[in-house]
Design goal:
The structure is a single chain. The protein has 256 residues and is α/β, with parallel strands linked by helices. 29% of the residues lie in helices and 20% in strands. The strands form three sheets. It has an eight-stranded mixed beta sheet with strand order 2-1-3-4-12-11-10-7. Helix 1 links the parallel strand 1 and strand 2. Helix 1 packs parallel to helix 7. The longest helix has 26 residues. It is globular.
């Protein structure tokens, strides 16, 4: 591959020392992107511009978008960079909640104290279905169950477009503008990550609404193939320079 054709790196923002970008990182690397990993919680700075990056992915973590830590506030403010520059942005769990906060929306626990830890159903809106292009069986569709690990959810910001809904936390995925997306669930989770999360965060499996540990693995066998196909299709469109399907709508353990 010629130097001029080498894909730009993707900025990866993680929130714990040993966190991993999981399957998202692997799929981006398979597309030829170098991963520029930054951890603001360890004092690493975020770039002043994304001119040298193909996009940015902000992952989950044990923090809350409502935390008063300086690095959390700086990270939320930094989200203006991809929005101003029109660069692809993907926020996963905490990263989605940070985007919601940046846009002025509320992030809060469930009013009845429920959490989503394990697999739970979601349903794509009409806008979400359009985003992936052709309807089934001609093209990829959203999975009907996805993997969660969170106790807070986000309101839909003014100007944002809802892409997927759920019964417990209604707002599951949204889009702001052409290239910024937030998703409440974790398509990046690998089997190894699930083993680690359910052991290191095992006490959270007793919270109201959480699924038992054995269900995480049995449900993965049932649902993960569709999640992987959805993620591959999503990333293909998310990074597309001028993909019309991306504009069709215009006509760690994450415990945040």
């Amino acid at each position: 591959m010629a130097v001029a054709d080498t894909p730009l790196p993707v900025l990866i923002v993680l929130h714990q020392e040993h966190s991993s970008p999981g399957r998202v990182g692997r799929l981006l690397a398979e597309r030829g992107h170098r991963l520029d990993i930054r951890r603001p919680c360890l004092g690493e700075e975020l770039p002043e511009t994304l001119a040298g990056h193909a996009g940015a992915v902000v992952f989950g973590g044990p923090q809350s978008a409502n935390d008063s830590h300086d690095y959390i506030r700086r990270e939320i403010d930094w989200l203006g960079v991809p929005l101003r520059e029109g660069k692809p942005y993907l926020g996963i769990c905490l990263g989605a909640q940070m985007l919601a906060r940046h846009l002025g929306a509320r992030v809060a626990p469930h009013p009845e104290g429920l959490v989503e830890i394990g697999y739970y159903p979601i349903r794509a809106t009409e806008a979400g279905a359009r985003m992936l292009g052709a309807p089934a069986p001609a093209g990829p569709t959203w999975p009907d169950h996805v993997y969660h690990w969170h106790r807070e959810g986000f309101d839909l910001a003014t100007g944002a477009e809802l892409l997927a809904q759920g019964p417990t936390f209604p707002n599951q995925a949204f889009r702001y503008g052409e290239r910024a997306f937030g998703i409440q669930f974790h398509p990046e989770v690998t089997h190894h990550m699930m083993c680690r999360w359910t052991v290191q965060g095992g006490e959270r499996l007793d919270l109201p609404g959480a699924r038992p540990r054995r269900a995480h693995f049995s449900d993965r066998l049932q649902h993960d193939a569709r999640i992987r196909l959805w993620l591959e299709a999503f990333l293909e469109r998310w990074l597309g320079e001028e993909d019309p399907a991306l504009r069709a709508g215009d006509a760690g353990t994450c415990m945040s």
